[in-house]
Protein 1
Amino acid sequence: MEFLRLDQLGKQFGGITACNNISFTAETGQIVGLIGPNGAGKTTVFNLITGVYKPSSGTISFAGQVISGCSPDDIVAKGIARTFQNIRLFRSLSALENVCIAVDRVAEYSLVQALLRLPKVLRSEAQTRRQAMEYLDALGLADKAELKAESLPYGLQRKLEIARALALKPQLLLLDEPAAGMNPEESVELAKLIRTVHDRYNLTTLLIEHHMDVVMQLCDKIVVLNFGQKLAEGAGGEIQTNPEVLKAYLGSGERSKRRARN
């Protein structure tokens, strides 16, 4: 079942075209990879989906509703969450507090009730901590709950961002280079964890990633962007052998083909 649709999506910044006529879909339960060279328009697509930017042209539909131009808050409320290429944690707060903030985003009590410390609020706070610990545990971070985010190794900060995104209870999860800065062993481990979380929470996932081993291991479908346009779309095997993709994204010649297979 079609869950996310981008239809002839375009975005201009003054005289610069960041995205032009991009169309693709994600089916319910799929992991879709979005790859391409730096500057290809991948993060711009994420920003358009999540309401950070408004499209200059085209439409975005999610779960049968057009969401083009909705505010970021509305996008979250509709069931879409994301992580960022540059980690955006509350560095001075603990791992648990970072996730609790996201859980509280969907809490069902008013500011007045919170200030009065009513029983409903106290019960909700206890439940918030339990839920936050569940998400930390899902990412292997339960034993780091009380540590400040800034004290965590880089790879664990990446996992904490994913835990915080999950706490928003999304149906569609957007991951922007989750394996950035990781070595090959760490990236393979993270790919397994993403698959586990994806299945456990019945997600549809859109993934930007430069680690091709992660992309090939995880993705049901891959969309390739280049210079703000869609260059190719297909399964991993098709993308690995597509001459235009090899030329634009991986370089040319036998060396690039070997890199694509690895």
Protein 2
Amino acid sequence: MRTLTRDARVSEHLRSVEGGERRRKTWQLTDDGAAAAKDRAETLSKTKVLLRGEDGQLLEVPAHEARGRLDADIGLLRILMHAQHEGVLTYGDIRFGLIRRKGDAADGELPPGRLTMMAGAHATYHTSPPNTRKVHGRETERTALDAWYDERRPAMLVHGIAGIGKSTLVANWLAALQSNDEHLSVCWYPCQPWDTVTGLAVSLLHRFGIDDRHDPYDLMSTLPLHPGAQLDIDLWRRRLLAYLTDARTIRDRFDPGRRGPPPYWLVVIDDAHHLTEQGGAFYGALLSLAEKTPVRLLFISRRTMDFYDQRDVHTRDVMRELPLEGLPLDVVERWLADLTGDIASPEDVLARTGGHPLALELLELYGDVVHGDWLRFLDQEILSALPEGERELLATLASADAPVPWSRLAEAVGWEGLPPQHLMDHGLLLDLKDGMWLHEALRERLLREVGEAQDARRAALEG
């Protein structure tokens, strides 16, 4: 605000705020600021954006046309107020509101109320899975999801590299499941990089029917009420456990006239890897809840998670894991059979893309086996986020024609210690019987780096 004030684009004032006794500092746009905002808006309105329709088709339109094609039903002020409530905006005492003169409101119109707990929580999750593109193959994975759901096991983790089709598979499977099970309540929570444990906890309470009018176990008092405060995970878990195991209370909350079993929930946490360090402890609390309540958890992540141990997978059958890899050759063949034009052989496509669904979708759209957008996706979502040492390790391994023993690979790149767990958790580095290998999609991208550096990598492996 200081920069904008110095540039004479906003003016600073002191005004009374509803519900407060002290006058507060406010800012308003000046004529220069309004003109600059208008120019900026006109420039941004010409930016091309991509929209995906209900039929899954992509449409490129100028930004100023996007508003008329979307049905979001939410304004900027509501977004800012919700962001503040979720703890995203926590610097000082920030309030948002419209500046209006006394007497502007229509006669008899009630003044706006104060922002209350749970306000806007309904906009942070979905009660049905998002619309998806056509899913090719994945019959084995669907069978695993069906078996997990039918056996009523507490949780499952679906993991794989970026763009491999994790959310698409789960959404497609869940849409079919929800159409056949009227008692299933879904909470699809898409995690964002800025998400917090508190935000997820608030959304879950809202989905479970907790609000300021219905809170028999005083769950809302467990939420942090001050910016920067931490959620008491154990207290939140204990009270929520008591609530979710009180069948009569839950049944009366959602359907007082029905005298059957209470509703049960399937909580899908998409991009679960985005949560902060406290997320592991919170996920562990959710897992303990799922073991004793009518709640099932389905995590979607780019990497494996460490809030449970392998005994929960292999011995106790509390958590199941479903790693997603590239599509096999027979699925690639069926996909390419539906395309027209001069298309490369399925074997060549599989070798160069690793059966990655996104690469095949771009092939379907543009006809290129390795499209520029595919390479850009690999760079932005995967390679650019890696430390230089790990990227060089993968690039050196890509220059080999077969799996390489770890001792030889480590010597070639000067690596000390065990293989990088970070790469193995994300499925980028594979520990096979014959040695270390990498995801085929990355190999095709890294082999495009030619010259002396590539020759030096091959020499290091051979030497």
Protein 3
Amino acid sequence: MLGEGHHDVPKGMLAAVVTHLVCHRPAPAQPAPAGVRLRRETRMPAATYRDLFRLIGRDWLWTSRLMLGDEDLLDVILDPKVELYLVESDNGPLGLVELDFREENNPQIAFFGLTPAAVGRGIGSWLMPEVQRRIFDRGAKTVRLNTCSLDSPKAIPFYMKHGFEAERREVNIFPDPRAIGVLDSEAAPMVPAL
């Protein structure tokens, strides 16, 4: 455990406070925005997943899936206990949801994100109750997710509005994806690269 006070983070590394959240019932359902749908994806190629993951998470420094090679990534996203959903319209993808049922009695929303063009259109307020319902309909007693201090400042209030409560925090120190070429140097301009 880190003690009180300031702690140096090595050059080329980032530190994020991760907040783990839990909910015990789905939020009230909302109507889907016109022309928006949620579709289960069972055979997404690694490159397609990475492109959408990067588009959604670039400015929040999402990196975990980008760091995996094709085989390791496909092992995760094609696992029968992992469900991928595309949020889409006739104009293409608007978001991605990854549900993880690999841990018995501990389902998680591993990733929940919208493309920059989809943010602010009410899609998330429809999507979260829909995702929660799909998990609780399988008999789950709780749903977990986590977010970090590098995410949008609207993330935690959004999750709490949809019934999530914070249950614990941890510090994650990891390589800056811009320093190692995983993301471009212009990503996340609000987080200075060192």
